[in-house]
Write a structure and sequence with these properties.
The protein is of the alpha+beta class and about 130 residues long. It contains two helices and eight strands.
């Protein structure tokens, strides 16, 4: 049989236990990791530069250079990419920019861009995948 003291303890402790089980869907960004590229793209000869952030009034623009191969023939390569925007504390802003696709020919260099009108946007990450 459970006494009143045990019920009171259970009522006080249970919310704390349940709160500890909760998780945040937003993980802070590591500011040093602004470019994430899958190994398959690296082995295919894709190179990229971490995105640079430019602020124009309330508009934030991210630009990143991506290139493929050295121009010595080879097949065209389709890659996918997505920019993720973060606030000053490194928390992801939602909704994320939609994923995009791009086909590169050997020796080609392109500039990928993304824009954010969110006034909290302070950091950006580029994710490249196949």
């Amino acid at each position: 049989m459970v006494g009143k003291a045990q019920w009171a303890t259970l009522i006080l402790v249970l919310p704390l236990v349940l709160a500890g089980c909760g998780s945040s869907a937003r993980i802070p960004i590591n500011a040093a990791q602004r470019l994430v590229m899958e190994p398959a793209l690296l082995s295919a000869g894709v190179t990229a530069v971490a995105p640079q952030l430019v602020t124009r009034g309330l508009l934030r623009q991210a630009e990143a250079q991506v290139s493929y191969g050295d121009g010595e023939g080879g097949e065209a390569l389709t890659l996918h990419y997505r920019f993720y925007w973060y606030d000053r504390q490194g928390l992801e802003l939602s909704p994320p920019a939609p994923p995009r696709s791009l086909t590169l020919r050997a020796g080609e260099r392109v500039t990928l861009t993304s824009f954010s009108r969110d006034p909290q946007a302070r950091q950006v990450r580029l994710y490249l995948y196949r």
